Amino acid sequence: MMGPRDAGRCVVSRLKCNQLRGGEPEGGAEYISRWAVAGALLVIALAQATPAQAQSTPLENALSATWPGMAEGATVVDWEGKVLKEGSNGYTCMPTPPMLTGNAPMCLDKIWMAWAKAWQAKEPFTAEALGIAYMLAGDAGASNIDPYAEGPNEDNQWIKEGPHLMIIAPSALLDAFPTDPENGGPYLMWKGTDYQHLMVPVGAR
Question: What is the pTM (predicted TM-score) of this model?
């Protein structure tokens, strides 16, 4: 799920650098697909060291979303904006959103933080660059269709995802991905909304 120092740094930096030079990302959706598979393989081992359940404090819960090397330098804030831990590596970790009863902490880069602010306020959001987020503790479940669904029903494709990465990017780079969570690889969640993003599973559900 999401509704914000990574294992794929070498590939991500290549894509970002190409964007900064004013060019299009190399390879489009095919390139992201190759990166997603490679990144997932790298993160699987890291995910094994991440607690799968909610911790005893919001700080611990937030940091359980990512691997220890990133957690050490990450900023941690709660959903009211209170800083629980200062950091310097560009990632912000947040505990499980208060509207959820299960476990769904996340660690977000700058682009994902802008996404989270828009999602929380139900404001428009347009991805203009690649953003990467970590949810290595998995999530308690979310609709694959409705960004604001609070529980499962017959129509909203409710899914509980295990450890995963999330990627946002300009829509043209994501449109080729399937929306089926059971396709065996990355899938596009909330397609057609301002909050659509690529889910990249790295562990069992």
Answer: 0.72
